[in-house]
Amino acid sequence: MAGQLASIAVLIFMAFLCFHMKKQETYESLSDRIVAEVKSVMFRQTAKQYAMQIGYIMENEGESKTAVQMVLDMSRRLFPVSGYIDTSQNYETQVESKFSYEEIVAMEAADEMEVADGTDNEAQQIQTANGGDSGRESGCANTVTATENTANSKNTTGFQLSQSPKADISLDKLNDFDYLIHNFYVVDKTTTITSEQLNASNLLSRDMKLTTPADQPQILIYHTHSQEGYVDSVPGDSSTTVMGVGEYLAELLRDRYGLNVIHHTGEYDVKDRDHAYSEAGPALEQLLAQNPSIEVVIDLHRDGVADTTRLVTNVNGKQMASIMFFNGLSRTTSTGDISYLYNPNLQDNLAFSFQMQLKAEQYYPGLARPIYLKGYRYNMHYCPKSLLVEVGAQTNTVDEAMSAMEPLADVLYRVLTGN
User: Fold this and answer.
1) Is residue 373 packed enough to be buried (19+ CB in 10 Å), middle (13-18) or exposed (0-12)?
2) 72-86, 241-255, 295-309: lowest mean pLDDT where?
3) How far apart are the first and last CA of the chain?
4) Under a CB-based contact definition with an 8 Å cutoff, are residues 240 and 232 in contact?
5) Cβ contacts of residue 288 below 8 Å, gap of 6+?
6) Dihedral (C-alpha) 241, 244, 246, 252: value to the nearest 10 degrees?
7) Cβ of 359: how many Cβ atoms within 10 Å?
8) CA–CA gap between residue 107 and residue 370 (Å, rounded)
9) Which of 153, 217, 297, 377 could cysteine-pair with 291, CB 3.0–4.6 Å?
10) Residue 98 burial (CB < 10 Å; 0-12/13-18/19+)?
11) How far apart are CA 396 and CA 233, in angstroms?
C-alpha cells in the first residue's frame, strides 16, 4: 500500500513537470530550452529513482511519446482501475445481492473479527422481515391448492424421463482440471479454487446416498428469497413464484419417488432482501434441530438476468427453464479463506453439486448451466448435502420453471439413492 501511495505521489509530481514542458518548436529563447531540458531530466530521473515501473516503461517506449502521453499511459498501466471496471464482466447472480449481510461482515472484517459469521442469532441482527413467526414453522405445514394442482398437472404432460444415459463422460477427462473447470464450472472473479478442491475422483468418491428411511424427514426445501417470481407470476399468489416451484418439486419427490420431504415456506426477504441469508439461518438451525433425520437441504431460487435473456432449454422434447447449481467457497480473491465464514462441509457441498451436475449432463443434456462458484457461504454450512439451485430467471414463465422440476427430481433421486 505504501509503495502504491509513493508511486501516486511521484506520478503527480511528474504530471506537474510534464504539463509545464514545451515542445521543442515552441522554445522562445535559449534559456527556455535550458529550463525545459532540466525539467525533462528531472522527470526521467525521478521516474528511474523513485518509481522503477515508470522508469522501465520510459526506457522501452518513452522516446516515441510526449510527456503528456507518457503520464496518461503510465496511469493506465500502474493503476488500471478504470480499465478493469470497463472491461471486466461479473455474473450478478440473484443468489445474494452485493450488499448482503455476509458481504458486509467481510468488508468489516478488520474491525469486527469477533463476528463469527453471517447467521449467528445475536443482537446485531435485524429482526426477521415477516415478524419472525415464519421461521418457527416445522414439518409439512403446506397444503396444495386446487389451482396449483391444476397447474402442476399441466407440467407432467408430454415429458418422458430418461431411462438410460445419453452422454458418456470419461473419468480421465474429468480428472483433467482444465477440462473440468472449463466444462462444468464458472468461477466468479471474487474467488479462486484449486485442483485440490476440485478433484473429480475425490468429488465422485463421496457417498451422497440417503441413509434415513422414508418414514422420517429426509429432505428440506426452503427459499432464502421467497419473493422471486416469473414473467407471468400472479401478484399475491405464491404458487406462481419460486415457492410454488418448490412445492411442485416436493410433490414429485414424495409422490413419484417415495421420499420424505419438508417444504418450508418461511419468508426472509419481504422487506430487506440484503439480509435474507442472516434471517434464514436461525430458522434453518431450528428446523434441523427439530428434524435431525434430515440429510438434504435445498435452497431453491430464481435467477435474475437481462430482460433480453431467456434461460430456456429443450429436454426430451419439452421446453423448460434451465437450472444452475451454485456453491460458495468461503474465500475471496483479495483476502483468501474467510475464517469466520468457515464451512466444514465445503467438500461435501462441492461433491453434491458436481454429482448432480454430472448426472444431469448424462441423463438430461442441456438442463443445467455450469456450476457457479462465488466467494461467500450462503448458509450451505449447515448440512453436507446442501444444494443451492437457480431455476430459470424472471424472463421465464411459471410453466417453464415447473417443467424443469421433473428432470431435477429424477436427478436428485438417482444421486440420493444410487438407482
Assistant:
1) buried
2) 72-86
3) 56
4) yes
5) 220, 294, 297, 382, 383
6) -140
7) 18
8) 28
9) 217
10) exposed
11) 10
- Range list of H helices, 90-169: 101-107, 146-155
| Burial class of residue 27 in the structure, from the number of CB atoms within 10 Å of its CB (0-12 exposed, 13-18 middle, 19+ buried) | middle
Residue 247 CB contacts under 8 Å (≥ 6 apart), including other chains? 142, 144, 148, 239, 263
Q: Over range 84-106, report the average pLDDT.
A: 41
What ranges in 127-275 are assigned the alpha helix state H? 146-155, 171-174, 177-184, 200-205, 242-251
Sign of CA dihedral 52, 57, 59, 62: negative
DSSP, res 117: -
3-class DSSP state of 302? strand
Cell numbers at 52, concatenated: 522503477
Distance between CA atoms of residues 227 and 265, nearest Å: 11
CA within 13 Å, CB half, 57? 18
| 415 touches 355 (CB < 8 A) | yes
Q: Which residues contact 275 (CB under 8 A, 6 or more apart)?
A: 100, 101, 125, 126, 129, 268
Rounded to 10 deg, the angle between the 242-251 and 146-155 helix axes is 70
77 C-beta neighbours (distance < 10 Å), count: 13
Question: pLDDT (tens digit, 9 = 90+) per residue, 324-379?
Answer: 999 999 999 998 999 989 999 999 999 999 999 999 999 999 999 999 999 999 99
Which residue in 43, 38, 41 sits closest to 71, CA to CA? 43
- Residue in 155, 384, 355 with CA at minimum distance from that of residue 256: 155
Tell me which residue of 78, 40, 42, 84 sits closest to 57, measured CA to CA: 78
* Strand locations in 290-384 (E): 296-303, 312-315, 318-321, 323-328, 331-332, 336-337, 371-374
C-alpha 288/C-alpha 274 separation (Å) is: 24
